[in-house]
Specification:
This protein has 367 residues and is an alpha/beta fold. It is built from 16 helices and ten strands. A six-stranded parallel β-sheet has the order 7-3-2-8-9-10, with helices on both faces. A two-stranded antiparallel sheet has the order 1-4. It has a two-stranded antiparallel sheet with strand order 5-6.
Length: 367
């Protein structure tokens, strides 16, 4: 059955420059040497254990994977994440669609975080030209180039623009390679569709990012560290723009999930940090770990000696290590990140802390 579809072509989309923002990165960025607030006795013990496990993991060539929610970027923590990457402590970063967007907006205009209540009331929330157009186009071009979701954005920021092929070059590629590279031909057809519909000129499209130094994605691209995006259709403001292309989202996001899963496959003796992610991180981790264990067990190897540090602001009233999983009539059972990670084997610790205090303490302890 064919259902009626909403036509995004009728939307009024305003320039990003007229939007009022709550956060200005030059003012609100967290300096890596800023003093964190104390984590308390229990938190300090978990931090010491986390630091020791990270040191051991990197000494032995094992991964340290960081999965985080968008507030880590929104709270101005990119400089701390960049320092951790530059010092070699992180081998993989993963975030959701909002984390990708905040990081890009900071790099592009030095500001992010709109007034959701106010703009929704005026039918304007998320309807911003540069964010929707540039991020979607980067993902569509990235799908054609064989990049992942986060990598596509990091590349655009680092390169300060996008390179668009001609329509004829895309047509020729499809004609010549449809039998040998059908998936890449599909990505070429997606880009061709966008080039034609939006009358995009071929060649170099400069997109200046004057605040690129604040971008964790650009730093990861420069350092050749995987930075993966794990979006959900309709969750992010880029889906409001007419140039948005679901197939390109799917191609790049699936590539990122498989890149992430490959890192999880190597997690024996490694560390997984899940910071401020109530849904994305636990959901992708449990599938990735199951897939990883499936192939490792076939080869006679196990993934049991891994360390998971889960960090969030919500206080946990349940001792997951001592008491196991709570019954379903206990509200703690529905704290998704604790419930999921407590089932993943290895060693799991939960630290109740502000992400700024956690990352600052971690970075400074590692030196």
């Amino acid at each position: 059955m064919s259902y009626e579809q909403f036509d995004r072509g009728g939307l009024t989309i305003l320039p990003l420059g007229v939007r009022q923002n709550k956060v200005r990165i030059a003012h609100d960025a967290v300096k890596p040497d800023a003093p964190p607030r104390p984590l308390g006795e229990a938190g300090s013990q978990i931090m010491a254990e986390t630091v020791a496990r990270m040191r051991a993991a990197r000494r032995d060539g094992r991964p340290v994977i960081l999965a985080f929610g968008a507030h880590a970027i929104k709270n101005g923590l990119a400089p701390v994440l960049i320092r951790l990457m530059e010092q070699g402590w992180l081998t993989h970063l993963a975030t959701n669609g909002a984390g990708i967007i905040h990081d890009w907006e900071f790099a592009f205009q030095g500001q992010s975080s709109e007034d959701v209540r106010g703009y929704v009331s005026r039918g304007q929330f998320g309807l911003w030209q540069e964010t929707g157009r540039n991020l979607n186009l980067a993902i569509i071009v990235g799908a054609w180039e064989g990049l992942g979701y986060g990598e596509s954005i990091g590349a655009m920021i680092h390169r300060q623009g996008l390179d668009l092929p001609t329509a004829e070059a895309l047509r020729a590629f499809v004609r010549e390679h449809v039998d040998t590279e059908p998936e890449r031909c599909a990505a070429a057809a997606d880009l061709l569709d966008v080039v034609l519909r939006f009358h995009l000129p071929a060649g170099w499209m400069p997109i200046p990012h004057p605040f690129a130094g604040y971008s964790a994605q650009a730093a990861a691209y420069r350092l050749k560290i995987p930075f993966t995006g794990h979006p959900m259709i309709g969750h992010d403001i880029i889906y409001t723009h007419p140039i948005n292309h679901g197939a390109a989202i799917g191609r790049t996001a699936l590539r990122d999930f498989l890149t992430y899963t490959e890192q999880v496959r190597q997690l024996e003796g490694g560390v997984y940090l899940s910071v401020g992610s109530a849904v994305m991180s636990p959901m992708i981790f449990e599938k990735a770990l199951s897939m990883a264990r499936n192939v490792e067990l076939q080869a006679g190897r196990r993934i049991d000696n891994h360390y998971i540090a889960v960090v969030d602001l919500a206080a946990s009233s349940w001792d997951w290590q001592k008491d196991g999983e709570p019954p379903q009539d206990n509200p703690a059972y529905y704290l998704r990140y604790c419930k999921t990670f407590s089932r993943m084997g290895g060693t799991m610790r939960y630290l109740c802390a502000d992400n700024r205090d956690f990352f600052l303490t971690l970075s400074q302890a590692l030196g």
